[in-house]
C-alpha cells in the first residue's frame, strides 16, 4: 500500500511525499522504473524541441523571390502538384507562359505567390511543400476540387491558415502550466514545453515523431476537406470551418491525454461530426 502525507512548512509550499509498503527491493525497482520513464520523457522533450525550434523559426524568414533557394522551393511545390505545366513567373510583370498561373494552386495572386507567405514566412512554404511531396494524390485532389467548386477554399491560402493555427497551438501553454523557459535556454520561439500539443508530439513514434508538425498539418488538411463537404461550406464560411477544425484538434488532444495511442492515426481518422461550427453560423442538416 501507499501512504501520502504533506511535508515542508514555513514559507515554502508543502511537498507531497509517498510512503510505499512494498519492501525495500520492490520499492527500489519501482523507483528505478519511474526514474527511467522520467528520463526518457525529458529526452523526448529535448529531441522534439530541437526538431521544432528551427522549423518554427522559419515563420520569421520572409519569402524572397531573389533567393534561389526560396524560388526553387516554390517551383518544387508547383512541380509536385502542377505536373508537366511550366512553372509560372513568381514576380509581377513576369513573362507568363501559356497555361495556368499560381491562382490555380490557391494563391491569391497569380503573378506574385510569395505575398501569401507574409503571415507564416518560409514555414508556410516548407509545410505546403512537405504535404505536396508526401501526400501528392491528396494535394492534387484538393486543388482540383477548388478549381471545380464555385465557392471552394483556395488550397495554398487555406493551408497557410492551417499552418498558422497549428503554430499558435504548439506555442500555447496550457492553463496553469509552468513550462516557462525554452529547453536548454537560449532564444528562439516562445516556450512550447507547456503546450498540450507539444506534449503529445513527444509521445509519437516513427515518422510521426520525426515530422510531428508536418504530419499534424497533413492530417488537418484532410479534416478540413471533410468539414467543408459536410457543412456544404462556401468561401465566406472559411473562418468558421477553421474554428471548427481547431475544435476537432482540441478534442483529439483531450482524447489522447485520456487514452494515449502514440500515433497520429487517431487524428487522421478523427470523427469530424464531433466538431461544431460557431452557433450563429450552424447549418441545419
TrEMBL record:
Q: Which residues cross the membrane?
A: none
Residue span(s) of domain ELMO = 69-253
* Highest taxon above the source species: Eukaryota
PROSITE patterns for the chain: ELMO
Record protein name field: ELMO domain-containing protein
Q: Which organism is the protein's source?
A: Hemiselmis andersenii (Cryptophyte alga)
Amino acid at each position: 500500500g501507499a501512504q501520502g502525507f504533506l511535508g515542508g512548512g514555513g514559507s515554502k509550499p508543502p511537498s507531497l511525499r509517498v510512503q510505499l509498503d512494498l519492501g525495500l527491493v520492490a520499492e527500489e525497482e519501482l523507483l528505478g522504473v519511474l526514474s527511467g520513464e522520467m528520463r526518457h520523457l525529458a529526452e523526448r522533450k529535448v529531441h522534439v524541441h530541437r526538431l521544432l525550434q528551427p522549423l518554427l523559426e522559419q515563420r520569421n524568414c520572409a519569402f524572397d523571390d531573389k533567393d534561389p533557394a526560396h524560388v526553387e522551393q516554390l517551383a518544387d511545390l508547383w512541380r509536385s502538384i502542377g505536373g508537366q505545366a511550366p512553372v509560372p513567373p513568381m514576380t509581377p510583370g513576369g513573362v507568363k507562359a501559356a497555361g495556368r498561373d499560381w491562382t490555380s494552386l490557391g494563391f491569391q495572386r497569380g503573378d506574385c505567390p510569395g505575398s501569401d507567405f507574409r503571415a507564416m514566412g518560409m514555414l508556410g512554404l516548407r509545410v505546403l511543400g512537405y504535404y505536396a511531396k508526401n501526400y501528392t494524390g491528396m494535394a492534387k485532389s484538393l486543388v482540383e476540387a477548388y478549381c471545380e467548386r464555385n465557392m471552394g477554399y483556395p488550397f495554398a491560402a487555406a493551408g497557410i491558415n492551417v499552418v498558422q493555427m497549428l503554430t499558435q497551438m504548439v506555442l500555447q501553454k496550457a492553463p496553469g502550466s509552468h513550462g516557462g523557459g525554452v529547453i536548454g535556454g537560449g532564444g528562439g520561439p516562445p516556450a512550447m514545453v507547456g503546450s498540450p500539443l507539444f506534449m503529445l508530439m513527444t509521445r509519437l513514434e516513427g515518422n510521426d515523431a520525426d515530422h510531428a508538425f508536418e504530419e499534424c498539418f497533413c492530417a488537418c488538411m484532410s479534416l478540413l476537406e471533410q468539414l467543408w463537404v459536410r457543412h456544404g461550406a462556401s468561401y465566406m464560411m472559411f473562418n468558421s470551418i477553421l474554428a471548427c477544425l481547431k475544435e476537432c484538434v482540441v478534442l483529439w488532444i483531450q482524447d489522447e491525454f485520456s487514452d494515449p495511442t502514440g500515433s497520429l492515426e487517431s487524428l487522421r481518422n478523427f470523427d469530424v461530426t464531433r466538431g461544431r461550427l460557431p452557433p450563429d453560423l450552424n447549418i441545419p442538416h
